Amino acid sequence: MLCRKCKRELSVDNFRKSKHYKSGYMTICKDCMKEKESTPEAKRKKKEQGLKWRQKNPDYYIKYSPTNERRKEYNKRYREKNIEKYKERDRIRSKNNALQIKNNKFKREYGITIDDYNLMLKNQHECCCICKQHYTLFKKALCVDHDHVTNKVRGLLCDRCNNLLSRATDSIDILKSAISYLEKQK
Fold it and tell me: CA–CA separation, 73 vs 71, rounded Å?
């Protein structure tokens, strides 16, 4: 088939199907169509067409809108019925986007990025701030330690040292008391 825009002779697979043409395919190839649809003017026109359609068909739009209660209930039942499908999809997403997910978690919880984390790790000589052991000796990555009152990040700790501070509720008095107790026992 010949594309009427780029004038290339292409196989039928390179054209979109359309019931509006006798051949059953559009006369512009997929590449030219993508190019045409990606212009700002085409995007604006498509958005306007959608708005006009929603104004002409308010009942249909409301019925199938994601904010509609019936639609929400249907989506909930569908998800429950196909839970394994969703779990598998979520596993694949997590695996493929692990770095992005971790970056988002750091931004949300601590206000830092992966780059900030890596810089802190480098500045700490890739060791825990308290026990000074190298991060490769641990099964888990070093935890981001932060002040629970001010949310200020203090450093990176191994899981054990982070739990130590957490169990002592970040109290210097409790930790001093623990040190004096250990010194008495020696």
Answer: 5
Query: Is residue 109 included in any domain, yes or no?
Result: yes
Range of the domain at 143: 98-185
Q: Is the model's pTM score more than 0.70?
A: no
Q: How far apart are CA 154 and CA 91, in angstroms?
A: 32
Tokens linked to 148: 């629970």
Q: Which residue do the tokens 């088939």 mark?
A: 1
Beta strands at 25-29 and 143-146: parallel, antiparallel or unpaired:
unpaired
| CATH at 160 | 3.40.1800.10
Q: Which residues pair with 17 in a beta bridge?
A: 25
How many separate domains does the chain show?
Answer: 2
The pLDDT tens digits for 6-31 are 999 999 999 999 888 888 999 999 99
Query: For residue 182, what is the enclosing H or E element?
Result: helix 172-185
Q: How far apart are the first and last CA of the chain?
A: 89
Contact 38, 45 (CB under 8 A): no
Q: Are 25 and 15 in contact (CB under 8 A)?
A: yes
